[in-house]
Amino acid sequence: MNSIIERISAHAGEIILGKDRQIRLALVCLLARGHLLIEDLPGVGKTTLAHVLAKTLGLHFQRIQFTSDLLPADILGVSIYERDSASFKFHPGPIFAQLILADEVNRATPKAQSALLEAMEEHQVTAEGVTRPLPEPFFVIATQNPAYQIGTFPLPESQLDRFLMRIELGYPDAQAERALLQGKDRRELLTQLQPCLEPQELAALQQRAAQVFVSDALLDYVQALIHFTRQTPRFLNGLSPRAGLGLLHGAQAWAFSDGRREVLPEDVQAILPAVAGHRLRPGAEFAGESGAALAQYLLASVAIP
Amino acid sequence: MTNLVWLLLSLALASAPHLGRLPFWVGPACLVLGWWRLAILRKQAKLPRKSLLLLIAAAATGGIFWHYQTLLGRDAGVALLVVMIALKLMEMKSLRDTMVVIFLSYFLVITHFLYSQSIPTALYLLLVVLLTTATMIGYSHPLERFASRPRLRLAGIMLLQAIPLMLVLFVFFPRVGPLWGLPKDAHAGMTGLSDTMNPGSISQLIRSDAVAFRVKLDGPAPDNSQRYWRGPVFWDYDGTSWSTRNQAPAGAAQFVPLGKPLSYTVTIEPHNQRWLFALDLPDRLPPGSSVTADFQIMAPSALHQRMRYSLTSYPEYRLGERLTDEAWERALQLPERNPKARQLAAQWRASQKSPRAIAQQALTLFREEAFVYTLKPPLLGKQAVDDFLFGTRRGFCEHYASSFVFLMRAAGIPARVVTGYQGGEPNPMGDYMIVRQSDAHAWAEIWLDDAGWVRVDPTAAVSPNRIETGIASALPAAELPPALVQLDAAWLMRIRLSWDLLNNNWNQWVLGYDQDRQKRFLSGIHRGLDSWQNMALAMMAGLASVLSGIAAWMLWRSPRRAIDPALAAYQKFCAKLARQGIARAPGEGPVDFAARASRSRPELANQINRITRLYLTLRYGQRHPAWLPRLRKAIRRFRA
User: Fold this and answer.
1) Do residues A26 and A159 both lie within one domain?
2) Cα–Cα distance measured from residue B180 to residue B77, given in angstroms and rounded to the nearest whole number
3) Is the pLDDT of residue A240 over 80?
């Protein structure tokens, strides 16, 4: 594994126990310049994971707690009249940070959600007629409770598509749970966590990840996967071109995190459930199938060319 | 959904021709089951419980048993098959179950040939096979929504590719005796003359336009009035019906030929009896057959299959110059009935001296009194001959032949009834003659001192048209069964005759392609080809060349894609491992596969990993062309 990535993972793994794969996926997502959606029940460590990533990567971190009365201005910022200068002065909102944790994003109204999601895509915000760029790098880690929880506004498909990956944390296994119960308070550990990277270093890592070599054979495979989802009635609709790019960038970052200079089919397979899981909907006759099951079906059905 | 609709449709078409033959409830029951299965899929409901299915299956089996009083045999077997396929739909969970249903559907198609082997049947079943194949393609295709047109196209291509194979198998597959017996009832429902004759039996037969036999004459056809095709001969009369239950009187089957002989070949349709039909009177017999003293030609066993035989007949002859005592007695035997007819005969006998004159008198009676030739005769009572001669006077050929023979016997002239066919329609296109069931006829033969057995046709006295031009012109148009209506338009007639020609060729060359014909055909192609060993060899060679021909065509047609040499080498490597039981799944990445293979064959782990590394670099990394020989070498050396 790439030594830097390994170091970061090791750091994060000290706090979030037994979730090495999810940590790595989250890192890969950031390396591929994608936004991350963490979906799980309350209390399994979603917020902690976001914190850990911000800390270890040494990024300027802001947390927005999404509630049903959150307004777009609460995210973007407002202009306030200042008597001294006799003018309005823009007070940037929490979005002006390198890493945003949008906690429980599906608790807010669609209006507030879309303010965040627009920023995610454009890397800039427009408030009161003035367009302001967001800092670089700019990541959003959103967490959400599964939609069957009471009082939620599920993200529409078009907005889900803006997240490169969606991961689920799940309960820790018995060993990790025991260590968790015996160990120190996580908050305390978090404060002790030291950054592993300078901000410029992250940009360099991202650049190197994007340079991982992609062969024609691999592109064939990615295209075969996308084509299959568009042809098969098991899927309500096929993967979008954006999803295809996401697959490719995700696979590159995964290969990079593995310390390789070329992408292998296994890299695509490793990230596909996270990249495609939230974009695939079951067709009419297969209602009730989860995105993970669909992703498995997709991988099992498409031969590697 | 689409697939199920296809399956139900092809099943419905596969069972449709059977439904008329099955108990009335089978069709609706299958319809309900199909509809139920569709509703289950649409509503995402559960399949019915096993206990319920068992109950339905038991009820259906009981119903079939009750209807046929058996579960064996052709009809009950087909009914059971149809019902069970419909029930199988209700427990169709996996692809495997579906395949079972599809194969059963193919089997159902075959069972139709137990009932009919005609060209329309074959064409219809071809269509069903096409649909069934398209259904199977739909289920096997990874895209569960497969449009109708490409699916039918693919099925059509597959069937087309199968046709040369079929032809090779058809021509060369050694014909042996039947490998299994057909169920007893497989031959029910064939029409033809029977071993008894009572009023109405022939007029029933007339209503069918089914072909009785076809004749290819070697010379010019005789006149219609000479075309008497001899069949069952009746000696014994019990007052209502004539029967052949007792054997014909013993004696040598000999006659003195007078005129020129006539050679011809008859292709007879199966009729479940042993009689073979011949023009009066046949000389040389078909091999294996026997002949009685009254010239009934009998096949060795009942005709369940179409048969072909060649004959020579002498239209002019002198038969039975001497009569044995037994024959004399049988030819005069009469039941104690019909006093009026007896009285009339006694009068004739008293007034006329010569038997010839008495017979003439009887014919005059038929000709001059108000006798009517009709397909719809009134019913006769216990004194059937009296009722007919002095009462109703409306009858068909069996009435006239029967009462004529009665009168002759009552007058002391030995006489017998002969049934068979009279006439026949020449098919100018095929240079052969069609004799249909509607040409069935009954006539009489009387024995005269100076001439032996002489044919007398009393029907000719009543309705000369029947004998001279055929049945269709002898009956009033309103009485004609639809099958006999003359087609006025010449082109309609031509179509009908062409159709019969096609059927004749089908019978001769497809259905009639038996051991004998196969041998003759093959030895005509090449000497010595007719031994079964050579046939089998020729069959295999034919199959091999057809298969390689199809394969070559497909390879030539498929777009040439440059295969990555690294991939080709790697596929060899995978094949080597697959032979050891370590097969790579299509979606399995090379790294995962290498890990799995190394786990099951740890001693090969080094080689496997080296090969995989080389392959991955070549295929997915930046090219190192120099590594390709290394990969090839490593794979060549790899011994799993």
Assistant:
1) yes
2) 16
3) yes
Tens digits of per-residue pLDDT, B158-205?
999 899 999 988 888 877 665 555 555 555 556 678 778 877 777 777
Collapsing DSSP to helix, strand or coil, A70 comes out as: coil
Q: % helix / strand / coil in chain B, to the nearest 5?
A: 55, 15, 35
- Tally: H helices and E strands in chain A: 13, 9
| Partner-chain residue, chosen from A215, A233, A261, that has the shortest CB–CB distance to B144 | A233
Give chain B positions within 8 Å (CB) of A215: 619-621
Q: Do A18 and A148 sit in the same domain of this protein?
A: yes
**B269 SS3 class:** coil
Active site residues of B: 397, 441, 457
Give the SS3 label for residue B390.
Answer: helix
Whether residue A299 lies within 8 A of chain B, CB to CB, comes out as yes
Give the pLDDT score at B395. Answer: 85
| Whether B313 contacts B272, CB under 8 Å | no
Distance between CA A139 and CA A135 in Å, rounded?
10
- The answer to whether residue A79 sits within a structural domain is yes
Mean pLDDT for B590-614 is 89
CATH number where A221 lies: 1.10.8.80
Three-class DSSP category at A96: coil
The DSSP string of B324-371 is: -HHHHHHTT---S--HHHHHHHHHHHHH---HHHHHHHHHHHHHHTT-
Residue A203 belongs to a domain: no
Same domain flag for A215 and A256:
yes
Helices A291-301, A216-231: inter-axial angle, 10-degree rounding: 120
pLDDT tens track for A39-98: 888 788 888 888 888 888 888 888 888 888 888 888 888 888 888 888 888 888 888 888
Q: What is the H or E stretch that residue A171 is in?
A: none
Distance (Å, rounded) from C-alpha B117 to C-alpha B511? 8
Q: State if pTM tops 0.80.
A: no
Residue B179's pLDDT is what?
55
Total domains, chain A: 2
Q: What is the CATH number of the domain that holds A48?
A: 3.40.50.300
Predicted confidence (pLDDT) at residue B7 exceeds the cutoff of 70: yes
Task: Flag if A232 and B44 touch (Cβ within 8 Å).
Answer: no
Whether B587 and A287 lie within 8 Å, measured CB to CB = no
Asked if residues B223 and B287 have their Cβ atoms less than 8 Å apart, the reply is: no
Q: Tokens 């030594």 identify what position? A: A3
Kindly state whether residues A77 and A219 are assigned to the same domain. no
For chain B, give every domain's residue range: 2-146, 196-484, 565-637
Q: Which residue has 């007792």 as its token pair?
A: B246
SS3 content of chain A, % helix, strand, coil (to 5): 50, 15, 35
Q: Which domain holds residue A272?
A: 211-301
User: For residue A198, is it within any domain?
Assistant: no
A215 closest CB neighbour out of B1, B590, B621: B621
Rounded Cα distance between B387 and A12, Å, is: 116
Say whether both A34 and A169 belong to one domain.
Answer: yes
In a domain? residue A172:
yes
Our CA-based measurement puts residue B640 at a distance from the nearest CA of chain A, in whole angstroms, of 23
